[in-house]
Specification:
single chain, 291 residues, alpha+beta, Glutaredoxin, Glutathione S-transferase Yfyf (Class Pi), Chain A, domain 2, 3 domains, four-stranded mixed beta sheet, 4 strands, binds glutathione
Length: 291
């Protein structure tokens, strides 16, 4: 590993497998599967392969919200994909998502099973399929989709930029942390101004825009990702904090956050979800207590 200030890029970049950083073991410059692995398929129409990162949580919140509306067609099995162990590079997973990232969904209720990858595409697919959490009015729908795609474009600056250099990089580089802290604070200000005179991202209606944005920016101001709330003075974005707290009280959100979670308090971890009763019987505290 070189001194950051003294690095001169070579003519042609080559892959150093041990370049340090939290994800050195799994990151690769090539796509495609590394091993054969058939994915499990449960009994419900929707099969989710995921982990409770902010991108994963978007989908489990959406599914739990749909079920809370009484839409039984949204019943799902959530299978755990351990990205730290490289499960996203198994052949079965790559067939669903050639980009090897969670979340990935299979809909077995269609004549030919439908695969959907990218969390924004999954939210939109589910919203259209069940006619929920997406405004019908054309102008509101445009507003909702604008914020949904704002999230998809913005979050990589938060996760891949700020989070990576603030938490995961093998050493702290002031230039990178400054650049991405500035951008993330700008994004928080975008949200704060919008939420100053709107209850939710698109107005009075809770939509897939909120479901996409909350797991990232809500978690940031609640200090649930990167332990950076103080560093970014997150409490000063009072409208984002108000919106974060309001959404956190929803039952479907509380349940969605638990699914495929493998860290934090054991009673909040539901590694796999195959039935709504799993929230009562299958959390890790109970699994471990039963031996
Ligand atoms: N744009 C994608 C991003 C998905 C993504 O980055 N997933 C991460 C976890 S949050 C992942 O699977 N990482 C594994 C890897 O990069 O190998 C989406 O929103 O679905």
């Amino acid at each position: 590993m070189n001194d950051a200030s003294a690095y001169t890029p070579p003519k042609v970049w080559t892959w150093e497998t041990e370049n340090g950083g939290a994800f050195a073991k799994t990151n690769r410059p090539i796509a495609g599967p590394t091993h054969d692995k058939v994915l499990p398929v449960g009994r419900h129409p929707l099969q989710l392969y995921s982990l409770a990162t902010p991108n994963g949580v978007k989908v489990t919140i959406m599914l739990e919200e749909l079920l809370a509306l009484g839409l039984r067609g949204a019943e799902y099995d959530a299978h755990l994909i351990k990205i730290g162990d490289g499960d996203q590079f198994g052949s079965g997973f790559v067939e669903i998502n050639p980009n090897s990232k969670i979340p990935a969904l299979m809909d077995h209720s269609t004549p030919k099973p439908t695969r959907i990858f990218e969390s924004g595409a999954i939210l939109l697919y589910l919203a259209e399929k069940f006619d929920a959490f997406l405004p019908v009015d054309q102008a509101l729908r445009a507003e909702c989709l604008s914020w949904l795609f704002w999230q998809m474009g913005s979050a990589p600056y938060l996760g891949g930029g700020f989070g990576h250099f603030y938490v995961y990089a093998p050493f702290k580089i002031e230039y990178c942390i400054d650049r991405f802290a500035m951008e993330v604070k700008r994004q928080l200000d975008v949200l704060d101004r919008r939420l100053a005179d709107h209850q939710y991202m698109c107005g009075d209606e809770y939509t897939i825009a909120d479901i996409a944005i909350w797991p990232w920016y809500g978690a940031l101001v609640a200090n649930q990702v990167y332990d950076a709330a103080e560093f970014l003075d997150a409490r000063s974005y009072t409208n984002v904090v108000r919106w974060q707290q309001e959404i956190a009280t929803r039952d479907a959100v509380r349940r969605g956050r638990m699914v495929n979670r493998t860290s934090g308090p054991l009673e909040d971890q539901l590694h796999e979800r195959h039935d709504s009763s799993d929230f009562d019987t299958g959390t890790q505290d109970k699994v471990e207590a039963s031996g």
